[in-house]
Amino acid sequence: MIPPDPSGMERRLNSVKKPVFLLALLVLLLVFRVGFPAFSLAEGEAGDGPFLQLNPAEVSLQKGRTVKVTPSVVNAVKGSLRGIKYEWTSSDSQVAVFQYGSVKALGAGSAVLTCTASLADGTVLTADCPVTVTVAVTGIRAAEQKFSVMEGDVFSPEFQVLPEDATNQNVLLTSSDERVLSVGDGGKVTALSAGKAVLTAVPEDSPSRKVTVSVTVAERVGITDKELTFLGIPWESNCETVMRILKEKGVVAEEARIRCSYTGSAWHWPENDLLFSRISAWRSLPVSLSDRQTGAGRTSIALLKTIGGYLPQTATLVYLGDGNGEDAIDQDTARLIGVYFQFDNRHAKGSVIFCELLGRLEAQYGTFTRYLCKDIPKYYQDLYKEIAPVMAGAREYALQEPGLDVYLGEYAICTLYGGGNTGIMLNMDTNETVTLFYGRTDASALIRDLEEHIVAENPAILEDAGV
Q: What's this model's pTM, rounded to 2 decimal places?
């Protein structure tokens, strides 16, 4: 037996190893080529062809700023990049453009910048770069630095965020006293009680900026229940009761005194609904009774608080009762039948006061009936333009209403009847004097009953008059 040749076996083993090694190497190359193709391309792309890549691929910046964006071609054929040209276009040149190698933000909004690359071999590639431009807040301004509202009013103060094209227009509101003003959702503010509070407005996008507004909440002149009353004071209260309530509510000074004197004329609510009847001597019988006989009187007081957001020039209380005094009516027996406020133009134009008061009254009580003298739109056109929006659908009346012995004048009148023979009337004359009246709607009947009572007690009054 011939022993094996070691050198020959080694040659055979080497001849086997070479094909195996080559086969293994080929397998590895195939695995590398097929199983991991992304390794040879840019991230997020596939395939062997060239494509255009932007860095960064998306841009967000503030107005006036610039950011560099670099285009590059990936997987380009050798030699195709010689003399390459890049061109840029914008979907909205008012928002952003590409200049000198950078994206420039010009205005708030969104735009898409498109880059086009023209290769030497004729290949044309494109890529988009979305751009978002924001405008920073630089300040905030209030429409009014201070204003007045009434208890129960819900309002939204107006603020202007600067600049006008600021991206974030949201404003955060806070109240210095939540017992007076409560801030709710959407910036709505509710006036909870009479007093003063400061609203602070801060732009959501710029907490370092702020503006403050001073708000005065006026006490409502009236309550909604079975009848309409002035400051919650029951009609037919005597002078002492009325004065006590007014002082408790802080409407008049603590040291103020009230003296109800006789008057030859006073406003009261007429039966025809058109206007306060300003009558002399409260006549309704064939004989004209004096104020001292009827006990008809009035007193004027100076208010410390605003009525409907405005401070009246005068406030007059009208009383009625048995007349048994010489210099003043009996304050114990006289009863309140009405109160009226007259506003002048110290705080605002009469037409402004008229429109605002009407809006607030209707928000509290409901819709008022409107009357308008025919002379106003005919001869006072400038005034009519200012009140026309709130006097839409008003009933026209003539200067001298048939059947009335009182002169109506040129008035815009709004009335509302409540329960318990009470009502509210708001009017304005062509001098822009505004009057707000709360009172009994049956005042004429009360006067007539009182006079009949006086005549029954003293028939000589009629005899002296020749009746």
A: 0.56
268 three-class SS: strand
pLDDT greater at residue 96 or residue 38: 96
Q: Where do the H-state alpha helices sit in 84-126?
A: none
Q: What is the mean pLDDT of the chain?
A: 79
Alpha-carbon gap, residue 150 to 77, rounded angstroms: 79
The secondary structure of 151-162 as a DSSP string is TT-EE---EEEE
What is the Cβ-side half-sphere exposure of residue 391, based on CA atoms within 13 angstroms? 26
What beta strand segments (E) does 236-377 contain?
261-262, 265-268, 277-280, 297-301, 314-320, 335-343, 369-373
What is the C-alpha separation between 410 and 332, in angstroms, rounded?
38
- Helices within 209-331 (DSSP H only): 239-248, 291-294
CATH annotation of 139-218: 2.60.40.1080
Phi/psi at 437 (5° precision): -125, 130
Q: Please report, in angstroms and rounded to a whole number, the separation of the first and last CA atoms in the chain.
A: 178
Please report the sign of the dihedral spanned by the C-alpha atoms of residue 182, residue 188, residue 193, residue 196.
positive
Instruction: List, for residues 353-396, the tens digit of each pLDDT value.
Output: 999 999 988 888 889 999 898 889 999 999 999 999 999 999 88
The rounded distance, in Å, linking the Cα atoms of 37 and 40 is 6
> Is 312 exposed, middle or buried (CB count within 10 Å of its CB: 0-12, 13-18, 19+)?
buried
Using DSSP, state whether 284 is helix, strand or coil: coil
Amino acid present at 201: A
Report residue 241: phi and psi, to 5°. Answer: -65, -45
Examine the pLDDT at 440 and tell me if it is beyond 90.
Answer: no
Q: Distance between CA 162 and CA 203 in Å, rounded?
A: 9
Q: Could you give the C-alpha distances from 8 to 2, 3, 273, 390, in angstroms and in order?
A: 13, 12, 136, 120
Outline which parts of the chain fall under CATH 2.60.40.1080.
51-134, 139-218
Count other C-beta atoms under 10 Å from residue 337's C-beta.
Answer: 23
CA–CA distances in Å: residue 179 to residues 176, 195, 199, 249, 284: 9, 9, 13, 17, 50
Question: What's the confidence (pLDDT) of residue 302?
Answer: 87
Q: Which fold has domain 51-134?
A: Immunoglobulin-like (2.60.40)
